Amino acid sequence: MRIGIDIGGTKTAAIAVSDDGTFGEVVKRATGFGGRAVLDSAETSVRLLAARSGLAVSALSSIGVGIPGAVDSASGVVSHAVNLGVSELALGAELGRRMGVPVHVENDVKAAALGAHHLTSIAAGPGDGGSMAYLNLGTGLAAGIVQNGVLLRGASGAAGEIGHLPIDPIGELCGCGQRGCLETVASGSAIARMWPSDAALPAAELFDRAAAGDAKALAVQRTFFEGVAAGVRMLVLTVDVDRVVIGGGLSALGEPLIHGVRGVLADWSLSSPFLASLRLSDRVQLIPIGFPAAAFGAALVGVK
């Protein structure tokens, strides 16, 4: 039995995963703010899941953690997790000391990529499931890439940070300091900027208004679709993955989202035989709503 933990800015989600890949109910609790609170939330989640499984914590095979920020997967050190109040935290070593069990730490989007790869590989059939990119649409935009069953991290762990690829030199100023990044048109924060709203879920309101024929909503939605489609195109053109799986909070928009993105990709293919040959619209799919990709993938981190 392995534990996978997804530490988010407001909540921590954790699951217990057995050797055959099955998992139980997701345990959720408030994350807290600051290094000690993050550690306490993770520890409490582990102890609760172990107790529910009828196991001593020492009987667990491993604990995996997915967390925002810059992660040194070798040392388990997390830095620049601003939304968690963490400037630097030796999460792997500290949690391992508390638990007495090996702890592996990975960036949350990269952990989710492992989870999505495992899920979609089942449908792909025998073998390692080929190559896949997980396109995370949340407050920001980032991707995780898995090739031949192995997570691609890059020289500094920045592989997949396509949200900060500039696509418009005179576009909006991005939080990273560059201008016109992909994230400024294809993310939750982009929708909030392009569609100012007091609604609890601005993206859901945008899609509802677009479905009702509101001209402004349709224009904003089209810009968003084109941004997401550009992300899919970037991933295929750079690493030629077999499939691009869209996940993250905005994936809950469901069929209207995937239909819109595929529509843009199909339109581009009409004017480009090269893009048409790549079958981009056939490669993109949505993660099943409710699948705990980051927590499940975290449980796989470090597993040989």
From TrEMBL:
One of its GO terms (molecular function) is kinase activity. Keywords: Kinase, Transferase. It comes from the Bacteria. Pfam families: ROK. Gene3D superfamilies: 3.30.420.40. InterPro entries: ATPase_NBD, ROK. Belongs to the ROK (NagC/XylR) family. This is Putative NBD/HSP70 family sugar kinase.
